[in-house]
C-alpha cells in the first residue's frame, strides 16, 4: 500500500505476519467481547500484521520499524506462527529497494517484533546489521530501559538484538518532538513502554501518523482497548485519546502497525464508540 503525502512517498512493507494470544492484544477486555472483532484460533491466538513503513522524499530513505526478521529458531516460529524467511527483506526487494539504500531506521520501541529485523546472522551465525549504512534512531528513554538489564525488563527486550545494536550500529537517541529529517518528527507517547514513540510525517499541510503500539490497530481505538504488555497502561489511557483527538481534528492518515486487514485510515470521533476508522485502505 502506497500513500503520497506531499514530498513523501510512504509504502507499507511487510515485517512478517504472526499470531499472538488474544488476551495479550486486548488486555482487560474480556474474550467474549474482543472475539467479535478478532476471531481466535484453537490456541487463542489472533492474526497480527507487522506493517513497517518505507518513507522516501527524494533525499532520504527511512524505514520505520523492522519486523521480527529471519533469524528466529523453528520453535519460536511455530509458537508465533511466523512467516518463513525474512519477510521484510523480501518486501523491500519487491519494491526494488536494496538494504544499503536505507539511511535511517527509526524504532517506535525495541520489542522483538519491531527490532528483530534490524539484525541478521551472517554465514558464520554472527550478528550483523541488516541496514549497514543507516543511522538507527530510538528514544533515549527506550534505549536506557532496553539496555539497562533491569530484572523486571529482561523478558521485554531481546538482549542479543539490543547489544548488537550497541556494538554495530550508528545510534541516535532522540527526545519528544525532535525532527529526525525534515518533515519527520517524534511524539513520545509512553504507555506501551516508557519511551515509546509515534512518528509524524508532514508535507504540504498534510500529516500521516505511525502510532506504533500505543494504538496498534483499528481494534484499539477505544481508551480501554490496549495490550496487556503495556508497561504503563494509565499513560496509554491518557495519551492515546489525545493522539486520536489530534488525528481526527487534523484529518491525519493513520498507518496501522498490527492491524491484519486495515493498513491506512483516517479517524473521526464517535459519540458511542469514542473513535472510528474511515477511508480505510485494506490489505486483505
Could you walk me through the main structural features you see in this protein, from its secondary elements to its overall organization?
- The chain has helices at 22-26, 31-34, 74-80, 87-94, 112-115, 140-146, 159-168, 233-250, and strands spanning 2-5, 8-14, 18-21, 45-48, 51-56, 61-64, 104-106, 119-121, 127-129, 135-139, 170-174, 179-181, 184-188, 197-203, 206-210, 253-255, 262-270, 274-282.
- The chain is an alpha+beta fold and 284 residues long.
- The strands form four sheets. The protein has a seven-stranded mixed β-sheet with strand order 1-2-5-6-7-10-11. A seven-stranded mixed β-sheet has the order 12-13-14-15-16-17-18. It has a two-stranded antiparallel ribbon with strand order 3-4.
- It has one domain (2-282): Metallo-beta-lactamase, Chain A.
- A hairpin with an 8-residue loop joins β13 (184-188) and β14.
- 22% of the residues lie in helices and 31% in strands.
Cα-atom Rg, whole angstroms?
18 Å
Summing up helix and strand content along with how strands pair, one would put the structural category as alpha+beta
| Helix content, binned percent | 10-25%
Roughly what fraction of the amino acids lie in strands? 25-35%
Largest beta sheet: what is the strand line-up? 1-2-5-6-7-10-11
Number of helices: 8
Secondary structure tally: strands: 18
> What does the overall shape look like?
globular
SSE pattern, N- to C-terminal: EEEHHEEEHHEHEEEHHEEEEEHEEE
The CATH superfamily name is: Ribonuclease Z/Hydroxyacylglutathione hydrolase-like
Number of domains: 1
- Give me the CATH architecture, please: 4-Layer Sandwich
Q: What is the fold-level CATH name, i.e. the topology?
A: Metallo-beta-lactamase, Chain A
Poorly predicted tracts of residues: none
Q: Mean pLDDT, nearest integer?
A: 95
Q: How far from one another are the termini?
A: 11 Å
- Specify the CATH class: Alpha Beta
Main beta sheet strand tally, sense and closure: 7 strands, mixed
Amino acid at each position: 500500500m502506497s500513500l503520497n503525502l506531499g514530498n513523501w512517498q510512504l509504502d507499507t512493507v511487510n515485517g512478517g505476519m504472526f499470531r499472538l494470544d488474544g488476551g495479550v492484544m486486548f488486555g482487560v477486555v474480556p474474550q467474549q467481547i474482543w472475539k467479535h472483532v478478532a476471531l481466535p484460533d484453537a490456541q487463542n491466538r489472533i492474526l497480527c500484521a507487522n506493517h513497517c513503513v518505507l518513507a522516501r522524499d527524494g533525499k532520504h530513505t527511512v524505514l520505520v520499524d523492522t519486523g521480527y526478521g529471519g533469524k528466529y529458531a523453528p520453535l519460536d516460529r511455530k509458537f508465533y506462527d511466523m512467516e518463513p524467511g525474512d519477510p521484510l527483506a523480501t518486501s523491500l526487494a519487491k519494491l526494488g529497494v536494496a538494504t544499503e539504500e536505507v539511511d535511517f531506521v527509526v524504532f517506535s520501541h525495541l520489542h522483538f517484533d519491531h527490532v528483530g529485523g534490524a539484525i541478521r546472522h551472517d554465514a558464520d551465525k554472527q550478528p550483523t546489521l541488516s541496514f549497514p549504512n543507516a543511522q538507527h534512531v530510538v528514544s533515549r528513554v527506550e534505549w536506557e530501559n532496553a539496555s539497562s538489564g533491569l530484572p523486571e525488563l529482561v523478558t521485554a527486550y531481546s538482549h542479543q538484538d539490543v547489544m548488537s545494536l550497541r556494538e554495530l550500529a550508528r545510534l541516535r537517541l532522540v527526545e519528544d518532538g525532535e525532527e529526525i529529517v525534515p518533515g519527520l518528527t517524534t511524539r513520545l507517547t509512553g504507555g506501551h513502554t516508557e519511551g515509546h514513540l509515534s512518528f509524524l510525517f508532514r508535507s504540504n499541510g498534510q500529516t500521516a501518523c505511525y502510532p506504533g503500539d500505543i494504538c496498534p490497530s483499528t481494534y484499539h481505538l477505544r481508551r480501554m482497548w490496549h495490550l496487556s504488555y503495556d508497561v504503563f497502561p494509565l499513560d496509554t489511557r491518557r495519551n492515546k485519546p489525545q493522539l486520536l483527538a489530534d488525528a481526527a481534528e487534523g484529518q491525519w492518515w493513520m498507518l496501522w502497525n498490527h492491524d491484519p486487514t486495515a493498513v491506512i485510515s483516517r479517524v473521526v470521533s464517535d459519540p458511542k464508540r469514542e473513535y472510528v476508522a474511515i477511508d480505510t485502505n485494506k490489505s486483505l
